[in-house]
Amino acid sequence: MSSTTTGTTTATGARTEEAAALIGGARERIDALDDRIIGLVQERMAVSAVIQEARITSGGRRVNLSRETAVLGHYRDALGKPGTALAMTLLELCRGRV
């Protein structure tokens, strides 16, 4: 069996051990970033719940559409069209948790 068909290179799709090592390290970094992103999303959900509770308790509505529009624009401006979809997902995760 050649070195290009070992488990390391097969798992990464790389054709050399050097590329497999680079990809493996980069994937570890992505996994760590994903864990941080998940933690930040969970924190955002908790903060959003505090805001919604305060709004509802004061007689307001659960959702503030003008604020959501601003969030959508912020993500779109920073990340392009896919940013809008990401923002929509975040808003959906953060709505109605109260």
List the helices and strands and how they pair.
Elements: H1 7-12, H2 17-57, H3 65-79, H4 81-94
Helix pairs in contact: 3-4
Identify the overall geometry: elongated
Question: What is the helix fraction of residues, given as a range?
Answer: over 70%
* Helix/strand class: mainly alpha
Average pLDDT across residues? 90
- Bin the strand percentage: under 5%
Q: Total number of helical segments?
A: 4
Number of strands: 0
Radius of gyration: 21 Å
Order of helices and strands: HHHH
Report low-confidence residues grouped into runs of 5 or more.
Answer: 1-5
Alpha-carbon distance between the two ends: 58 Å
Major pleated sheet: none
List keywords for this structure.
98 residues; mainly alpha; 4 helices; 0% strand; elongated
How would you explain this protein's 3D organization?
Mean pLDDT is 90; it is low at 1-5. With 98 residues, the chain is mainly α. 78% of the residues lie in helices and 0% in strands. It starts with 6 loop residues before the first helix and ends with a helix. Helix 3 (65-79) packs antiparallel against helix 4.
TL;DR?
This protein is mainly α and 98 residues long. It has 4 helices and no strands.
